[in-house]
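User: Please check token order:
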Amino acid sequence: MQEAFFAGAAFAAGAAAQAAGGAWAQCGGQNWVSPTTCVSGYTCVFVNQWYSQCQPGAAGPTTTLATSTRPASSSTAAPSPSTAPGKFKWFGTNQAGGEFGEKTYPGVWGTHFIFPDNQAIQTLIGQGYNTFRVGFAMERLAQNGITGSFDAGYLRNFSASINFITNAGAYAVLDPHNYGRYFGDIITNTNDFKTFWTNLAKQFVNNPRVIFDTNNEYHTMSQDLVLQLNQAAIDGIRAAGATSQYIWVEGNSWTGAWTWNTTNTNLVALTDPQNKMIYQMHQYLDADGSGTSPNCVSAQIGLQRVVGATQWLRANGKLGVLGEFAGGPNNVCKEAVKGLLDHLKANSDVWQGALWWAGGPWWGDYMFSFEPPSGTGYTNYNSILRAYI
């Protein structure tokens, strides 16, 4: 989850009050009263009863509504889904705590940071959740330099959490929750970043249920640097001999799904010799997309903010996962979250799963807490999320 967010343009009904909808604008849906035409080069595509969108397609303004729930197809062949249609490969929660106590390094386990509660993880696995993204701080693992040896105590406790998850039959995502930074400075040395990832991947090279996440939410960085860091991480992981595991790459601008198709287009150039690379995006539903408010823009905002990313994935033959999402404890957000997940599941040929933000034993009364048995997010959303397992 981000600590700040540059405000991107959210979809709004008033923006459509023009002669024809612009690129990616809303152009239809139940109770929609604005024009249903699109600018030249875009066509109005039906997404669900609430929302249609101007997407690249037939030239000339049009009011044609497709009957498919999927975005318009492109000339680029979509990848073959790695799981059954309409079913997610990965569905679960983030597990925060190992990255807590930011700026207090190395800190003390149990005082400044904590790792997941095994009993809570087991409860969620017992309900069908199968993927847990476990946050950690690079500064605590590699305390004496990004290419240096790992701290034995921190590695031991982190590995114990990862091994518990994978031994229980679930997937564990290794999440360096660093925003593309190390001790507060943007990581610019791609060779050092590659070495860090080679060192870390060697610790889990024989665990096929481990997933490597290159870094959490790159932001306000050179777009080319984000590309190069991701590629260095991929190269470092594969150089360690970790060839069976998936790698989740993240984008700039907090890896937001709602700006992906305009911000992170260069990441299409990433390559993985094992062809097990997944594009990880995050999406929150409040006004600025930061996930800091319990209020969602509308009941349709979940779908609206990811549909452009869906089109980008399919057009480029890529696979994605929504690595963070959440909604506040209210009915508008519940409908928005259901709309979001309905869209992802309807497009599971490109969307491989989604993870709620966030579980962890130190959340207290945090509005999104998915910690059993009484976390606010858990009590409000568990029954909703379980319908998508």
